[in-house]
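User: quick one - fold this with glutamine bound?
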Amino acid sequence: MGQEAGEKWTDAVVLQPTIPKSDRLLDPALLPLPQPLPRGGRGGRLADLLRSATERLSLTLPPREARLEAQILFAHGLGVNRAWLIGHDRDRLTPEQIAAVAALLKRRLAGEPVAYLLGEREFYGRPFRVTPDVLIPRPDTELLVELALERLPPNEALKVLDIGVGSGAVAVSLALERPRCRVTGVDLSAGALRVAEANAEALRAGVEFLISDGYEALGGRRFHLIASNPPYIAAADPHLKQGDLRFEPPLALASGGDGLDLIRRLVSEAPAHLEPGGWLLLEHGWDQAAAVRALLREAGFSAVFSATDLGGHERVTGGDFSL
Ligand code: GLN
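Assistant: Sure. Structure tokens for the protein plus glutamine:
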């Protein structure tokens, strides 16, 4: 994955099957009150400040990750890259620089996700702008993109739909990998669509975006492939109150008592929006694959399958509709 060292820890270890590693961060109430960083003068040496920030991040992260996160936050706050930090560790920072870094560290210690602090997260090899209006793209979702690409021959001009585009990570990646396809992305959130449009523009992807609750705004339109990473967490799942999820849009995360409310709708209404032989591919929770396969079969899909993510969990389920 990408040029940002920050990517390494997001896919390396998983605490809970569907919960990214950054969610190890404890409830801020459990943290000792952060000490202010030393203010300039003798205390302002970059190496000392980095060590102090690392120590505080170590309260909730393993030491190597804490050091990496400290470097990422310092690099962002100072407007430099991590290599610069290593070469300048004897430098003294100005009070303004210290204030910028301390503000980021304080927000991180209060649990804000690194991706929101940086305003960016890499997905499928490209940088995507992210704001609290959108779910932070997860490495797991690259599986959804790969499975879609396998079903989209490069030379065919097929119609593709992404439901719940969020940051646009899936729709934009598909549009860029398959320039001949016509990709449409819908979302219920106007805020998310603004982020997705900005990403499509910055990455020069031709995607049609529409505000829509599920398929509603699409009328009778049909597609050769529908892909979605919908909200799928059960409303009462305690993980929603932990780590990054606390800061992400609830609309993008939870869907009913068993998490499957939207998935049920997307499956039952899909046949009216698929071309003959068209595919529906859905990301879901680590323990939902059997339920989603059953929903697809009940709705008349064939070639129903589930695919496993890097963490070894069945993460995406799909089928094709040939009736
Ligand atoms: N994969 C996310 C998580 O469990 C959830 C995203 C979603 O609901 N689509 O952290």
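One thing worth noting: The longest strand covers residues 274-283.
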